[in-house]
Fold these 2 entries.
Entry 1:
Amino acid sequence: MRLKALLLVLLCFAAGLSYAQTGRVEEKEQTVNGVNRRGQQLTVQLDPAMVEKLWKNQLSEKAGKLKVKYTKGVYTLDGVVLDTISSNPMRIISTINTTPEGSQVWWSLDMGVAYVDKTATPKEYAAAEGYLMAFARKAYREDIFRQINQAEDVLRATKLEQERVVKQANDIQTTIEKNRQRKLQLEAELVKNAEELKQLEQNVQTNLKQQELSKQQVQEMEKAVEAVRAKLNNVK
């Protein structure tokens, strides 16, 4: 039963690797700190905790020596340059939410002279969309690696279980062989004991005969001695 459970878990991991590894980006307004901001929202069907960790690391890597501020669920980064989007320093405001659709990464990019907007800045908007999609692919790869590691852990456990079962079978076979050998030894000892008992019984019978013969000899010797004494008495 334990082996079947491990195999079931492994199959579930294998099935999990086949989900659609895509993300969806859409233009989305969001109120942050009382201000309504237009930005982009990426939706991925991944664990929120993992997505937030990866996104925070992504922002920190791009920030370099700059500091990523985090207050009440809002990430803020001032003066960062994402050269794939714009060569101008930008102010990034970002949040991460969870919905039935999955994890949602939202950000607003302030280039100083304009916000990244599908209509006003289509080139930068497309680049920012590509940036988010690249992050989505990175997140899905990370999740797949995690599932692979978990599947390998299950595989190792399955192999250990197989080794345990094989060893158990070998131990049982060894015990059976020892019991068989012991049975043969006991049977041989029983035969030997029976032979020894028979020999002892024969020895007893022989001894009884020897006792009877010895008794007769003693009686005859006693008679002989008495006869000699009688001769002595006849001497005057």
Entry 2:
Amino acid sequence: MPEDADDLGKYSATPQALARRVAQQFVMKPYVWSALSVNVHGERHLDDLQAPFIIVANHSSHVDTTVIFGSLPRRLSRNLAAGAAADYFFKQKIKSLPTRLFFNAYPIDRGGMRAHQGMSGKLLDEGVPLLIYPEGTRSRTGAMAKFKNGVAALSIQHDVPVLPIALVGAYAAMPYGQNLPVPGRPPVHIVFGNPQRALPGESAPRYTERLYNKVVELHDTTARAYGMPTQADFQRQLALRAAAARNVELPPLPPQPPLPLQDPHPGEPAGGTDAPPA
């Protein structure tokens, strides 16, 4: 059933926030931080950010949301609500209850559904910040799909900033089809960018393209610095598989720029946040 307007208060209510705090800090984060080596970059970009806002990020792993929630300061993550596919996470209570508990999740319609239409905007009007993956679904290959225009339209209509985030290494740490992270504490980098707003007269499609390019830039700058696959690498592998299926030879890649010799995130510790707070 659709959420009633009277139900929106639960997304910022104190009892639910306290329950999420316990679940996130004493169950979710300790496990994921013990299974991964999480490194956080760009925290200075969060200094002036205030709710409501929208977070966008590339999405290729089930660890993505946990890493985002666990890396944000409490003042920003307290009421953060993650958009989740209504047709997958909210059809059965066995899926919806833990998703709500850990991620303050709310239903997003896809595939022509309309039962929850407008809920993202209503939450923003209530002061609730949102996490939305604008690709629409997890990548099966690590390669990013183009962003849908919904986030840009919400940002313009409700006059809220968009925080771009890149997740680097999450696909390798727990690729599509895996139920647990791979052994050995694989490295995952989370990179916070500068909050963005639409430029004067900028259309939603142009704004969407700019947000997409920003996430790719954050991803690839960090990936090159740490010797990890870039989006160009993921796209190349995708094209190679498609070409192999058609028995077509691809032209060679153009020369890649050399790895930077300096830290791409000066002034920040390279180790990030390996251990959860006590």
